């Protein structure tokens, strides 16, 4: 049985889709595993009027697929409480304070509090302000922590404004910015593979690596998210957060320890060395795209999607080259790409090593060894290396050493939100974005967006079901490289 975590967890947006689909089931899994036992309570708050019984039924339905013991589930549900509240009204926080104090005494919670913002980002600052002014942040507890969902701003300027608002109530070490990609098992495996194996640890630098590629490809189109997506695009929706956070694990220096403070310091050393492009460099190093119809005409182009302006210049595909001005990565390009309506759904990292010195002569051709970390939809690790062909003459071929996450392993793997909630309860910020990383990512992305805003692109420029515009391939070809993943 793991050590019990003592906490009061408050979900703002407690009747929302995320709470019902992810947050309550994740919290229940922590209860089943023994991280939460007797000394915890959960408050859900929203504008909707609900009785305690109605709220309990909502939670009961949300965890139904995970219940193996109904008595155990009912014990869990008994720790849930609900407050109807307008979070923009300071007066509404008095009842919450009373309930916080009541539950603190009832369950001996030691003043430990986590506030989870599952609400629109425009409310983050308001809620944080009232948590502070109305006395909900305890002075005598072991911790007070704030968990917030993306997006963290829509530009560096808006992100900085939000950071300043939150900083009035919470220190940066108390703010846990959620990027659920950092909670994915195979993203966390990057560190294990890199630092746990001397073979890779010693070779993770410019002397042995040709380039590193990060792909986040989707087969779906914008679906029903055009209202949001047309103002964000792939650049803000996928590159600024998920992609950059994965890159952080790949580019960072080796941390002094695996404590969150050292991990963040190592990541920030890399982020701070990221080259921010000027307008000419954006044109040289980044490609944007917007999907057109599929070759068979069964899938419509982006401009024909519901709620998309007919003249939209929004990007549904981005590919680019990142350069880190640090000794470890001198001359090593990091290629990234993300897009919708591509040939295959895949989130993956491909580390392309340099070719070995060919001592074999004759017709022997050596390939670049490639380490691949498969993140979604099926997790796994592949290592393509040179080996002797089976023919009698000495020729080489590429063989694939691979491991795939088994169905049994998958059942035991915590969902990202379960892992994130646990880590926040445990005070482990390793898998959360800190302000410096967020700020650098926004500055980098803002420079690209500003360059693109100054010019118009001829859209659409790639066929639905392809791997993006041809310019994406050209981007690598001019460096003598090519994408490992072809779809």
TrEMBL record:
SUPFAM superfamilies, A to Z: Glyceraldehyde-3-phosphate dehydrogenase-like, C-terminal domain, NAD(P)-binding Rossmann-fold domains
- What span is annotated as the signal peptide, if there is one? none
Extract one GO molecular function annotation from the record: NADP binding
Query: Which EC number(s) does UniProt give?
Result: 1.1.1.49
Q: Which Gene3D superfamilies does the entry link to?
A: Dihydrodipicolinate Reductase, domain 2, NAD(P)-binding Rossmann-like Domain
Q: Name one Pfam family in it.
A: G6PD_N
Top-level EC class as recorded in UniProt? oxidoreductase
Per the database record, which ranges form the Glucose-6-phosphate dehydrogenase C-terminal domain?
Answer: 192-483
UniProt GO cellular component terms: cytosol
Q: Which residues of this UniProt protein bind substrate? A: 180, 184, 218, 237, 340, 345
Residue stretches making up the Glucose-6-phosphate dehydrogenase NAD-binding domain: 11-189
Q: What does this protein do?
A: Catalyzes the oxidation of glucose 6-phosphate to 6-phosphogluconolactone.
Q: To which protein family does this belong?
A: Belongs to the glucose-6-phosphate dehydrogenase family.
What protein name applies here?
Glucose-6-phosphate 1-dehydrogenase
Q: Which organism is it from?
A: Weissella confusa (Lactobacillus confusus)
Taxonomic lineage from the root: Bacteria, Bacillati, Bacillota, Bacilli, Lactobacillales
């Amino acid at each position: 049985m793991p050590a019990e975590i003592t906490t009061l967890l408050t979900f703002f947006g407690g009747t929302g889709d995320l709470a019902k689909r992810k947050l309550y089931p994740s919290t229940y899994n922590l209860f089943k595993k023994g991280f939460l036992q007797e000394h915890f309570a959960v408050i859900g708050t929203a504008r909707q009027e609900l009785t305690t019984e109605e709220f309990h039924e909502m939670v009961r339905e949300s965890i139904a697929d995970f219940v193996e013991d109904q008595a155990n589930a009912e014990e869990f549900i008994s720790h849930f409480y609900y407050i109807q509240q307008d979070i923009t009204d300071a007066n509404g926080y008095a009842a919450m304070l009373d309930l916080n104090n009541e539950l603190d005494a009832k369950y001996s919670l030691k003043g430990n509090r986590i506030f989870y913002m599952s609400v629109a980002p425009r409310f983050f600052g308001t809620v944080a302000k009232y948590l502070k002014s109305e006395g909900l942040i305890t002075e005598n507890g072991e911790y007070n922590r704030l968990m917030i969902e993306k997006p963290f701003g829509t530009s560096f300027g808006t992100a900085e404004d939000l950071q300043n608002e939150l900083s009035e109530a919470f220190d940066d070490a108390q703010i846990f910015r959620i990027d659920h990609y950092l909670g994915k098992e195979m993203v966390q495996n990057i560190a294990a593979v890199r630092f746990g194996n001397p073979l890779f640890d010693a070779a993770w630098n410019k002397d042995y690596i040709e380039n590193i590629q990060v792909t986040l490809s989707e087969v779906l189109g914008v679906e029903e998210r055009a209202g949001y997506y047309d103002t964000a695009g792939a650049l803000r929706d996928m590159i600024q957060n998920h992609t950059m956070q994965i890159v952080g694990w790949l580019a960072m220096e080796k941390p002094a320890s695996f404590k969150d403070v050292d991990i963040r310091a190592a990541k920030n050393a890399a982020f701070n060395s990221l080259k921010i492009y000027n307008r000419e460099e954006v044109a040289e190093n980044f490609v944007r795209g917007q999907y057109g119809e599929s070759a068979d005409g069964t899938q419509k182009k982006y401009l024909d999607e519901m709620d998309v302006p007919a003249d939209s210049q929004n990007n549904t595909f981005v590919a680019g080259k990142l350069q880190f001005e640090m000794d470890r990565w001198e001359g090593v390009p990091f290629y990234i790409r993300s897009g919708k309506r591509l040939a295959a759904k895949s989130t993956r990292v491909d580390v392309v090593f340099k070719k070995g010195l060919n001592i074999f002569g004759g017709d022997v051709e050596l390939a670049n060894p490639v380490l691949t970390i498969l993140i979604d939809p099926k997790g796994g690790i592949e290592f393509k290396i040179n080996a002797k062909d089976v023919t009698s003459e000495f020729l080489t071929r590429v063989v694939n050493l691979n491991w795939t996450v088994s169905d049994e392993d998958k059942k035991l793997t915590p969902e990202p939100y379960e892992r994130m909630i646990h880590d926040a309860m445990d005070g482990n910020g390793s898998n959360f974005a800190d302000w410096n990383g967020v700020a650098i990512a926004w500055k980098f992305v803002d420079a690209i967006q500003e360059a693109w805003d100054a010019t118009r692109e001829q859209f659409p420029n790639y066929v639905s079901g392809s791997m993006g515009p041809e310019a994406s391939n050209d981007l690598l070809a001019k460096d003598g490289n090519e994408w490992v993943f072809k779809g």
